[in-house]
Amino acid sequence: MRGDKPPKREVVVPGDFLGTGLKPGLGTFSVGGKTYASQLGIKKVRGDSVNIIPLSGRYMPRQGDTVIGEITDISASYWLVDINAPYPAPLHASEVPWKVDFGDTSRFLNVEDVVLLRVLSVDEAKRVQVTMKERDSRRLRGGRIIDVSHSKVPRIIGRKGSMIGLIKKYTDCRMFVGQNGRIWLDGSLDGMYLAVKAIRKIEEDAQVLGLTESIEVMLREATARKA
Amino acid sequence: MEEGKLVNDKGIRVDGRKVDELRPIKLEAGVLNRADGSAYIEWGENKVLAAVYGPREAHPRHRQDPARALVQCRYNMAPFSVSDRKRPGPDRRSVEISKVVSEAFSHVVLRELFPRATVDVFMEVLQASAGTRCTALTVAAVALADAGIPMRDIIASCAFGKADGQVILDLDKEEDNEGQADVPIAIVPRTNEIVLLQMDGHITKEEFDSGLKMAVDACHRINEMQRDALRRRYAVTTDRHKAVKASSEGV
């Protein structure tokens, strides 16, 4: 990237005119062929379509997302999970990897338990269903959770997991990142402290170029100082 | 009331403004950390803080709309916002303002995207000096955008009125108390649709038309300030890459 023209990062606010004849994408709307921004964010034009990458706003669940949720309620045949979305997500007893008898749900998961799960479906009325019948789904014991803006999650994961791999390597932490902006991590106190520091820096500098390099420098210096 | 007390024959008002001049406005977005979005405004002597939460689950359940989100607003005046202590809590006036503001926002928020949910808007008037509903609506629109709520546009609001037989823009306290009319409006700047219009007092049709034109122009100026406040807030996070790139190239 160095030396090329920096990619355009234009901040737009709702009602801003984006262009004519463009295909309206996420965070935009069209009136009579003219496209406007509907959300505060960064304008991204790719081909003939335009998208807004939000800089704020709540997480909206999408099918297939891996999310970190907290059990908020139990009934005889399902759990209610808070996945940091505007809507509660029921986790049905048939969507867990265990055989759960009717009325026996609390033996497996209880209120305040934290789980890594997958969004099974979201219908047009935004009714959400989640599942744990996925290879990576599990109950998360111990560790701690930090919240970040969901729009920063792709930067925290990095291209093909490069960023999160880096943090894991230098801090020796176990980490899971949910698309809903929740990050679970467990490791030594120093490791977790450093990992949180790195994540906060990524969050702050999400739009800075060469972020992976600067984070690696930071992590390397911090671990070298300790050694 | 004697003629020429509020507006002199040169068209200059008690506080030195021209008839079509706004009071000074200072607007800042993203001032609170706990809310999803927030903004603060100083408009003349008015000071209003706005916070937005949501979209989130609407409670009680029976108020949910299965097809779209609710926009619930609360306009509240602090006990110390006026010269005589205001008895705290909702009264007839603040319930009315909350209602009209919520209806104005319902026209621009893309409510269909969040069925059964609610977007909660809180407007706290810390200091009042005429025109607080316009002030509150203007700042709440910025807080909504700051919260990332999808909207068709950012609403801007302003009042016009009549004092000493003259049509004037953005009435201050004295003009409001002693003038003949006060007409707060709010518009969708992109389309010039009117989303709020109330009137107190008497005014002729001609005066109304000229005042409306004046207020619509003012709303466009206010809208520019709203957009500026948001861009200023987010430029901090996005313009940084230029500095980093410059330093990496040894500039």
Structural features, described:
- The complex is a heterodimer of chains A (227) and B (251).
- By secondary structure, chain A is of the alpha+beta class.
- Chain A has 3 domains: 10-54, Beta Barrel (OB fold (Dihydrolipoamide Acetyltransferase, E2P)), CATH 2.40.50.100; 66-140, OB fold (Dihydrolipoamide Acetyltransferase, E2P) (Beta Barrel), CATH 2.40.50.140; 144-226, 2-Layer Sandwich (Ribosomal Protein S8, Chain: A, domain 1), CATH 3.30.1370.
- In chain A, 21% of the residues lie in helices and 33% in strands.
- Chain A is built from 4 helices and 16 strands.
- Chain A has helices at residues 153-157, 162-171, 189-204, 211-226, and strands at residues 10-12, 17-20, 23-24, 28-31, 34-37, 41-46, 49-54, 66-74, 78-82, 89-92, 114-122, 128-131, 138-140, 144-147, 174-177, 182-186.
- In chain A, the strands form 4 sheets. In chain A, strands 8, 9, 10, 11, 12 and 13 form a 6-stranded antiparallel β-sheet that branches.
- In chain A, a hairpin with a 3-residue loop joins strand 8 and strand 9.
- In chain A, helix 2 runs parallel beside helix 4 (211-226).
- Chain A starts with 9 loop residues before the first strand and ends with a helix.
- Residues 1-6 of chain A have low confidence and may be disordered.
- Chain B is α+β, with helices and mostly antiparallel strands and 251 residues long.
- Chain B has one domain: Ribosomal Protein S5, domain 2 (2-Layer Sandwich).
- A 5-stranded mixed β-sheet of chain B has the order 1-2-3-5-4.
- In chain B, helix 2 (132-146) runs parallel beside helix 4 (205-238).
- Chain B is globular.
- The termini of chain B are far apart.
- Residues 241-251 of chain B have low confidence and may be disordered.
- Chains A and B meet through loops of A and strand 3, helix 4 and helix 5 of B.
